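User: Sequence for Transcriptional regulator (TetR/AcrR family) below. Tokens please.
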Amino acid sequence: MKEKLREVAIELFERKGFKETSVQEIVEAIGATKGAFYYYYKSKEELLCDICVSYLDDLLRQQACIVQDPEKSCTEKLRAIVHMVICNIRTRKKSARIFFREMRHLADDHLAEIRAKRRLFRKRYEQLVREGIARGEFKPSLHAEMITFGLLGITNWSYYWFRPDGGISEEELTDIFVDFILHGIKAPRAGESGRNEAEPGNSGGQTE
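Assistant: Structure tokens for Transcriptional regulator (TetR/AcrR family):
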């Protein structure tokens, strides 16, 4: 029952918005009663928090699998995280839109848990950048914290405009983002390949 309440709430919150959706509409959609709703959730806000936390926990689980992989270089891990976030646009798009759009309706006690999980996701990303710098895969002049915020900004906002069933595939968008992250948009000078020697497939700068 709890999973059904969450699933229908995701549909309604994404379509109508959190404030415009009532508890009555949620329970009617699955043929339940308000009593059943309040057995699992103290309030509609607690349900929203549950949706956001579930979404973040899934991202953190996937991210942990990537960063803990001893077979991947930092560059490969970076690409894998970008690809994971883009793939989640297809698999968890509605939850993502609710997370970014409706989180403002949560009180501080609920936000504290969510902020801690967001911070953990960001810190893992930042540590990956720092490790890449230390290994010589990324430029030593990079400001790891600011680069991390930039990476998050590039990928997070894709939820609002990227269509997985459009003209660009998830793999292609990942390649576009990673190329932009690693090389920017400036054309290489004569004699330069424009390819980072530390990318997967090249030996330069890699220690694994």
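Residues 97 and 170 are 18 Å apart (CA to CA).
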